[in-house]
Structures are given as C-alpha cells and as structure tokens.
Amino acid sequence: MYLNHPDAQVVQLYNVFTPEKNLNEFRTLYLVLNYVDSDLNRIILQRVSLTEDLIRLIIYSIIRGLKFIHSADILHRDLKPTNIGIDRNSNITILDFGLARAASTGTPTGYVSTRIGFIARWWRAPEIYLNEEKYDKKVDIWSVGCIMAELILLKPLFCGETTYNQLNKIFDIIGTPDFATLREICKPESSAYIGRLEFKPKKDFNELFGFKYDPLTEKPISGVSPEGIDFLDRLLSFDPRRRPTAEEALGHRFFELYHDPMKEPTIQPIIDKHQDTEYTEEQWKSIVWQMIQEFSPPSWINDDPTDD
Description:
This protein starts with 12 loop residues before the first strand and ends in a 14-residue tail after the last helix. Strands 3-5-6 form a three-stranded antiparallel beta sheet. A two-stranded antiparallel sheet has the order 1-2. Helix content is 35%, strand content 8%. It has eleven helices and nine strands. Strand 5 and strand 6 (92-94) form a beta hairpin. By secondary structure, it is mainly α.
C-alpha cells in the first residue's frame, strides 16, 4: 500500500478487506490488485525476436519502476521475467513483492541481511553467493541485466544448476574477476574458492548481444546497438560498486528518447518497524487487522488515464 502511485510501474493495491467482522474471527484476507494481461516470460517463450526499440522501452520501464522502489529504500530481490507484467500496449508492471525488504530498519546501512528468502538463482547477483551477509540495491540492477540479456537471446543468460555451477556460468560470460576485486567484496573463503578456478576471459558482448542482420534485407532482426551493449555491460558488472544505480541507469544514452527526471516518480524512504521483529501469530493478526482498518483505496483509482 505504501508504493501506491498513479504513475509508477509497480503493482498497485486497490483494496484490502476481510469478510470477518472482528479480530477474534479474523481468518481471511483479500487483496485487490491491478490486472495485467501477461508477463515477460510468456513473451520470451514465444521465441519471436524483439526489436531494439521494444527492448529499450521494456528495460527503461522496469528501471523507472525500480527507481521508484529504491527511492523508498526497498529492495525487490526477486526480479525475473515472470515477475514483470506487460499488457498489450507494452506497459510494464513490476509484480510480486513477496521477497522485498526495506533497507532501513531504523539504522540505515544500505545493506540487507539475506537470512530471509532468495532471488531465483538464474537472476541472482554474484555478491549474494560470495558475501551473503550483506548486499544492497545493486542486486536488483544485476537482475535487470539478466532480464535484458534474456530479451535479446530469448533464453536465460546464466542457467546454473547449483550455487557453484551458477558462479561458473557467470564467469563463462563476464570473465573471472581479478584478485583485488575479490578481496574487496568477497569473504576470504569465497575469494579462495574463485582463485582456484580456471581463469576465464570475458566474452565479446558485441558478438553475444549485438545486431544480427537479415542477409536479404540487411536490416537487424535481433540484438541491440553499441549503446545497448554498453548499457548491458554496466548492469552485469561483477563488482556491484561499478553497476549504476537505477537513477544513474536512466541517464544512460541508451534511454535518451525517454529519460526525463521530472517525470520519473520517487517517494520518501520507508522504515519497516515490523521487518525483523519476531511476533506470535496472534500478534501478526492484530497488526494486519489494524492495517485493514486504516487502509484507504487510492484517490486516483477511478481517474481516466487519458485525461490531461
């Protein structure tokens, strides 16, 4: 309910209610959300190459929504094609906040404990494996990079079967990180493990993700331009400090047709006082019941989006 906004690419909570009349009877909770026709996974499974213009619009929209989410000091932590809704007009909605966490719990550090939940392995940032005690919003940026690559290739980029296999799949593409980087961002045991692996050079992103041309028309039928490749390369940086923030990503020249900071919504950071608190079942029921009583549907819910 905190992320309700008429112009954010984020799933909206229109209403919340229960048929029960009092707290003692409270057993059922209904959430009313905005409807989305499809998701990116269904689009990818059609195995029809997407134009660069469509990929650009989709990724811009995801990061625009991510800027809004991150401005609230929230990490989504589960960005993947099935959690990105899309309608017939290519409008994007970021879905499923089941693993989302507030970065701030009263003492903002910028980091989040990993003790609750995981991002699905194929879209999971490497630092979650290598320094699982803490990570920041850049894990979502990595996931967007994986999604962008998948939109180009029409298949997941890193299809690891286990944790170690996933790391190897990542290094197959982006290369083995240097020891200085490992020492700065990884636990000692993680650095030692990677140091024992065979060195792998970085693959040529132009060859992997660049334009592929129709031999008859000589027009691109898949892939992205050098600007798109440069942008993807930044998202998939092994070192999270080198990845752009959502706000920085929107300013990349790949999005110059869309980017307007004045039209990209943000919101005040949230501090979730309940996030790391242990409650009994009855206490949780009481908290949720109170939230239901205090909830108000968005004032703009019946507005006509075509009105100026």
